[in-house]
């Protein structure tokens, strides 16, 4: 029996970077289609998401950028939230895990389990970085994966083979903070004994959902349960996260995979308070369906850990379904944020203004529902030009133009019992069935098949010809075509909300419920005035696609140049050695090329102490004209040496940019020459 209330969640994106097309195709667009459809079906829907701001990726990004974790999450939360809004992702609430409400709800959840005796306190040995002076979270430990031999595996997961790990399983572990080999040190944490919930999970999932859960989800859960579950720490020794609400837990926070899924609950509470709802109706009522939209890397957390937490709490219902998607590749290569091999949502919106539905359509058409799939810019172009422009948009335009040409925009009279009208109901019924079973690609095909049918119908009927000899037939043809166009305006909304809105305005009609679409034969009445045709989709030219392909190719070349790995630290020096270095601010007065030396420039530099000559190998990165007047930093007391017969008196400070070019190290603001640095 289908519930009239739908609690729909989408995986919380880490606020350590923007969202890309892999995230959109694997979670957010399918979740939005499902939520929109359920609303149209008259269901009471809560569609909830928010930024996960406590993960280790946040602190890693903060350390790299030299800022605080709060700076990072503030920046990316806004970027992510805007990207979702720009692409029509219709969350009822999009919040964040750094909110006061979330901290309160997470801590209350933890205390409930603690007071019920659901945790075990264990003193264990965990990796500790002696140089950094802190315990290492799983993601701060890298080493060799025992499963596939990948040297870059993290302490919680190998991203190459997908194996879930614990730090103790890594071979040759090293700290990401210092690069040193960590030591084991005792610490106390609170564990949830997942093994106590094996019987419950087997009965609920393995016996209860073998027929209605996706094979990829069911198979992964079954594999985990067959291997046997172990206690898992629900707290961590960190200084960024939700503090553990116990008196003897200073310096400890809730495990991110404990507090993050509770975000669904805390965000629902925020939404309920704003809208006069009772949040418990959505989380603690058997007449509500809980649906988690996630990627395949989150299956274990949503199907084992979070359900075990809710079972331990005792007041929450279990998910009805967890339709996890596989991964989307980009141009036959794995999407990688570290390599910048991605199509970023916010950049797409800027570079393809008004074409949000083209991306939504393309990603749904290639959605990785049961296996990994691939996005290419050429396929994107084909989907737009051949399907959205050539089929969907072409049909709509012909209908609107012909009705305006022959009937001044007034829908003519036709047969209200014409068999062709049944195609609208058929498409709506198919879409409903497919979406209830989370088959988004098939549902999208049903929508496009109705547009194909409309085009074929017009091509056979040829009302532009029959209008002369058989005006009654021409009127009937365009009456039927108008009904099909109105049907497309209605059923396209979950998939292409921006285009649907344009269509409703074009045909001067209101949005109907899904039940009305399926039951009403006539969606647009005889005598109804429609508005002039409006361009829904425009052809995407080869130059636009080549630009995007070249943009990715440039990323590859940049990665090859930089290799992304920092060079090893040089030999240790003493403080007395450092005090001997005389670093000063200076200004370049003149610059010229050195004869017969392609890489060298000769500078005259005002150091504030004197004016001297410095030779530097920067000619491949700068022209002499670019350097004149630039304020730089100079190592003043470096012993002079002859370079190409010119005595160089000092060394200018430079660094290498991601594109391989050099950049001068300069002060933030102009200062006097000769100011000491250090």
Concise description?
It is built from 21 helices and 26 strands. The chain has 678 residues and is of the alpha+beta class. Strands 17, 18, 19, 20, 23 and 26 form a 6-stranded antiparallel sheet that branches. Strands 3-2-1-13 form a 4-stranded parallel sheet.
Give a structural overview.
This protein is 42% helix and 18% strand. The termini are far apart. The protein is flat, with a radius of gyration of 31 Å. A hairpin with a 5-residue loop joins strand 24 and strand 25 (662-664). It has 678 residues and is of the alpha+beta class. Strands 17, 18, 19, 20, 23 and 26 form a six-stranded antiparallel β-sheet that branches. A four-stranded parallel β-sheet has the order 3-2-1-13. A four-stranded antiparallel β-sheet has the order 5-4-9-10, with no helix packed on it. Helix 12 crosses helix 16 (471-491). The longest helix has 31 residues, at 377-407. The chain contains 21 helices and 26 strands. It has four domains: 5-108 and 257-330, HUPs (Rossmann fold, 3-Layer(aba) Sandwich); 114-237, Methionyl-trna Synthetase, domain 2 (Beta Complex); 378-569, Orthogonal Bundle (Isoleucyl-tRNA Synthetase, Domain 1); 575-677, OB fold (Dihydrolipoamide Acetyltransferase, E2P) (Beta Barrel), CATH 2.40.50.
Which key features would you list for this structure?
six-stranded antiparallel β-sheet; Methionyl-trna Synthetase, domain 2; 4 domains; flat; four-stranded parallel β-sheet; Isoleucyl-tRNA Synthetase, Domain 1; Rossmann fold; alpha+beta; 678 residues
């Amino acid at each position: 029996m289908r519930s009239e209330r739908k609690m729909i969640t989408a995986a919380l994106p880490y606020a350590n970077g923007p969202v890309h097309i892999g995230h959109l195709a694997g979670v957010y667009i399918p979740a939005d289609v499902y939520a929109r459809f359920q609303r149209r079906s008259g269901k009471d829907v809560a569609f909830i998401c928010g930024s996960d701001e406590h993960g280790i990726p946040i602190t890693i990004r903060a350390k790299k950028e030299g800022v605080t974790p709060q700076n990072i999450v503030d920046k990316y939360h806004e970027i992510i939230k805007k990207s979702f809004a720009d692409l029509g992702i219709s969350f009822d609430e999009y919040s964040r895990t750094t909110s006061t409400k979330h901290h309160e709800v997470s801590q209350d959840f933890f205390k409930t389990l603690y007071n019920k005796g659901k945790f075990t306190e264990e003193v264990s040995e965990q990796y500790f970085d002696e140089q950094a002076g802190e315990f290492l979270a799983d993601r701060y430990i890298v080493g060799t994966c025992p499963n596939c031999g990948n040297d870059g595996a993290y302490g919680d997961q190998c991203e190459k083979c997908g194996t879930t790990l614990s730090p103790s399983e890594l071979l040759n572990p090293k700290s990401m903070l210092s690069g040193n080999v960590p030591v084991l040190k005792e610490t106390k944490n609170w564990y949830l004994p997942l093994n106590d919930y094996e019987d419950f999970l087997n009965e609920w999932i393995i016996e209860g959902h073998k027929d209605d859960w996706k094979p990829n989800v069911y198979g992964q859960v079954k594999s985990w349960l067959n291997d046997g579950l172990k206690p898992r720490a629900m707290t961590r020794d960190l200084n960024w996260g939700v503090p553990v609400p116990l008196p003897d837990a200073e310096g400890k926070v809730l495990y991110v995979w404990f507090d993050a899924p509770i975000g669904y609950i805390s965000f629902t509470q925020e939404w309920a308070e704003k809208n006069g709802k009772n949040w418990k109706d959505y989380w603690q009522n058997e007449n509500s369906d809980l649906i988690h939209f996630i990627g395949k890397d989150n299956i274990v957390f949503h199907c084992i850990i979070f359900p075990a937490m809710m079972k331990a709490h005792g007041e929450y219902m279990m998910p009805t379904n967890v339709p996890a998607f596989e991964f989307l590749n980009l141009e036959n290569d794995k999407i990688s944020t570290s390599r910048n091999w991605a199509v970023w949502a916010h950049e797409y919106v800027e570079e393809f203004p008004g074409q949000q539905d083209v991306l939504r359509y393309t990603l749904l058409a290639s959605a990785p529902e049961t296996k990994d799939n691939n996005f290419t810019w050429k396929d994107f172009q084909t989907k737009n030009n051949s399907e959205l422009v050539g089929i969907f948009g072409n049909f709509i335009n012909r209908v609107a133009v012909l009705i305006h040409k022959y009937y001044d925009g007034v829908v003519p009279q036709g047969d209200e019992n014409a068999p062709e009208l049944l195609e609208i109901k058929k498409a709506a019924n198919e879409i409903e069935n497919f979406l209830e079973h989370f088959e988004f690609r098939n549902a999208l095909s049903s929508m496009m098949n109705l547009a194909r049918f409309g085009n074929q119908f017009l091509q056979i009927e040829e009302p532009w010809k029959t209008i002369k000899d058989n005006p009654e037939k021409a009127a009937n043809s365009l009456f039927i075509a108008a009904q099909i166009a109105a049907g497309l305006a209605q059923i396209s909304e979950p998939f292409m909300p921006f285009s649907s809105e344009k269509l409703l305005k074009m045909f001067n009609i209101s949005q109907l419920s899904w039940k009305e679409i399926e039951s009403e034969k006539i969606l647009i009445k005889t005598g109804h005035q429609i508005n002039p045709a409006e361009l829904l989709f425009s052809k995407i030219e080869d130059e636009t696609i080549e630009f995007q392909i070249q943009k990715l190719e440039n990323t590859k070349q940049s990665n090859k140049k930089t290799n992304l790995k920092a060079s090893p630290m040089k030999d240790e020096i003493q403080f007395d050695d450092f005090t001997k270095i005389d670093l000063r601010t200076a200004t370049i007065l003149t610059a010229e090329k050195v004869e017969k030396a392609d890489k060298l420039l000769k500078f005259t530099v005002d150091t504030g102490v004197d004016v001297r000559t410095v030779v530097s190998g920067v000619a491949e990165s700068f022209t002499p004209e670019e350097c004149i007047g630039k304020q730089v930093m100079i190592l003043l007391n470096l012993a002079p040496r002859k370079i190409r017969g010119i005595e160089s008196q000092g060394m200018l400070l430079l660094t290498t940019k991601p594109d391989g070019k050099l950049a001068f190290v300069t002060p933030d603001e102009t200062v006097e020459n000769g100011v000491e640095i250090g």
